[in-house]
Design goal:
The protein is globular, with a radius of gyration of 20 Å. It is built from 13 helices and eleven strands. By secondary structure, the chain is α/β, with parallel strands linked by helices. The chain has an eleven-stranded mixed β-sheet with strand order 1-3-2-4-6-5-10-11-9-7-8, with helices on both faces. Helix 2 runs antiparallel to helix 3 and helix 9 crosses helix 11.
Length: about 425
């Protein structure tokens, strides 16, 4: 029997609806994969196999009730689930079970999805990593903070998983693990029941192995969006080195330029885009906003339970506490000014192409990598889609990302199919 774990969410839903496979078979295959691999990958904080199989049996007795009928989904462990613990990656919440599901979880269930379990996150979705390893090489980080979601999808343990991004917590793990990651436009997806760490930055996202799965998910989680009258097959690609370009490894720089050249040969118009000078300040502003608002949201845990907070998070929170009000206000002004100026970058381009990360996943599991190539896009609140572009000489993934106009999420996802088909050699 073929390996059902390799099905995309869309393929699985279609085959369940047609009767070619059952939800029980699919969930069983995912659970078997978890049993055989997760001792090393360690992507899951919590899995209730019996409950998932029982849900699958029930789905198999029903007519499909939604586009994800019978399909298992992983949920990052900073998103509330009333039937499973939500630990936020913290010892403080090791036995906490929320009273209600997050809105995104409710919508997944209404669409027929089966919540397979909770995926590992960094402590309070910030920088202290959990135990998850990179499926391509267990000695390397999977990135963070959505480490478990990225690794579970990359390792064929689940076809689709939710994540969150406040700096680079979706796009960077997708790059390191060789999967597709999507960060929606800020507030496009309802964040009720998702951890608050920085209200000006926190954004819901997802991981998949198929662009079509992200379109499917956006239809479940997102609002109605006016579709273009005609899809543009060959978008104008703006290569945006951004102020962070010097931080990219030589292999990452070469990979981005190779993607651009491949798109040019596929008859895309490829141009260089230089951001206005005010964007030079945005990464620093994002860091200040993140640290101050993290202190506002999470500082009580440091005050009340200091022994249960890691040194990494303690240092980050104290930095936010000690940031002056004037510095914080100035950072918000920079953020708002750049949001107003972002249209300049899209005057001549449909999409921006830029690195997803500085390079391949770093060696070691004690840190999650540098989000320098994600900070400004998160601060801008624009939709971002990361995809595996190449492998390095050690077969580790190198990821690129494309950036869309604010609110044009579905257009970005649709155009991503063309970009990946012609630009990636993954």
């Amino acid at each position: 029997m073929r390996d059902l774990c390799q099905l995309s969410a869309l393929e699985a839903a279609s085959e369940i609806a047609s009767g070619s496979i059952t939800s029980h078979q699919l969930v069983s295959a995912c659970l078997h994969r978890i049993d055989s691999r997760d001792e090393n990958v360690r992507a899951w904080q919590y899995v209730d196999a019996e409950a998932a199989l029982e849900q699958a049996r029930i789905k198999d007795q029903q007519e499909p009730a939604g586009p994800l009928h019978g399909v298992p989904v992983g949920i990052k462990d900073v998103i509330d689930t009333q039937s499973m613990p939500t630990t936020y990656g913290s010892k403080i919440y090791k036995d906490f079970v929320p009273k209600r599901d997050a809105t995104c979880v409710q919508r997944l269930q209404q669409a027929g999805a089966i919540i397979l379990g909770k995926t590992v996150t960094a402590e309070f979705a910030i920088y202290q990593p959990g135990p998850t390893a990179n499926p391509h090489n267990f000695a390397h980080t999977p990135g963070g903070s959505s480490s478990g979601s990225a690794a579970a999808v990359a390792d064929f343990q689940v076809p689709l998983a939710l994540g969150t991004q406040t700096a680079g917590s979706v796009i960077r793990p997708a790059s390191f693990c060789g999967v597709i990651g999507f960060k929606s436009t800020k507030s496009r997806y309802d964040g009720q029941g998702m951890i608050d760490t920085a209200p000006h930055l926190d954004t819901l996202g997802a991981f998949s192995r198929s662009v079509d799965d992200l379109l499917l998910l956006d239809g479940v989680l997102g609002p109605d969006e006016a579709e273009p009258n005609k899809e543009k097959e060959n978008p104008v690609i703006g290569v945006c080195r951004s102020p962070a370009w010097e931080h990219a490894s030589s292999s990452m720089q070469a990979a981005i330029l190779d993607v651009a050249e491949r798109l040019r040969k596929a008859d895309a118009k490829v141009i260089d885009i230089e951001l206005p000078s005010i964007f030079d300040e945005l990464a620093s502003a994002q860091k200040k906003i993140h640290s101050r608002e993290a202190w506002d949201c999470l500082g009580q845990h440091l005050r009340n339970n200091p022994s249960q907070i890691s040194e990494v998070l303690t240092s980050f929170l104290i930095g936010g506490r000690d940031l002056s009000d004037n510095s914080y206000d100035e950072a918000l002004v920079v953020q708002e000014s750049c949001k107003r100026a972002i249209d300049i970058a899209f005057q001549d381009a449909d999409l921006l192409l830029t690195p997803s990360a500085t390079g391949t996943a770093p060696l070691g599991l004690l840190a999650t990598g540098d989000p320098i190539f994600n900070r400004i896009w998160t601060a801008l609140g624009v939709p971002c889609l990361g995809f595996p572009a190449q492998r390095d000489i050690n077969a580790m993934p190198l990821g690129a990302q494309i950036i869309g106009k604010p609110g044009m999420d579905r257009q970005l996802i649709k155009q991503a199919s063309w970009v990946i088909r012609h630009g990636s050699i993954w």
